[in-house]
Amino acid sequence: MSDPATSSERYAQGIATRRAVLGDSHVDRSQSGTTDFDRPFQELITEAAWGHVWSRPTLTKRERSIVTIALLAALGQDEEVAMHVRATANTGATRGDICEALLHVAIYAGVPAANHAIKIAKQVFEQMDAEKAA
Q: Where are the alpha helices (DSSP H) in the chain?
């Protein structure tokens, strides 16, 4: 990628933060599947979400992880919930943290949203436990 956007400091910080949170294998898979069609979107989220918001020093990665999971659960973004629950292995957010966040989702965004996110989190935890045991 020789586009000026991909060589910016914000992009470089974004890639570093994205890798720290989601893991190298996830980012590598995402980048290998990038086409000319979605390259601008990938650059946008790398710079804006990861290089700007996730890289700010005010909240820790753990705190951002908790907030992100709650927001994604409230919005019903199932695949993103699963991805960010898996990322807690890298952010330091605990299963207890996620439980508390999803209790907030139940009260402020609705019980069905929280119930579904809890189901997703449990499935991801089972997968993570199985991977760790193997």
A: 9-22, 24-32, 39-45, 61-75, 78-91, 95-108, 111-133
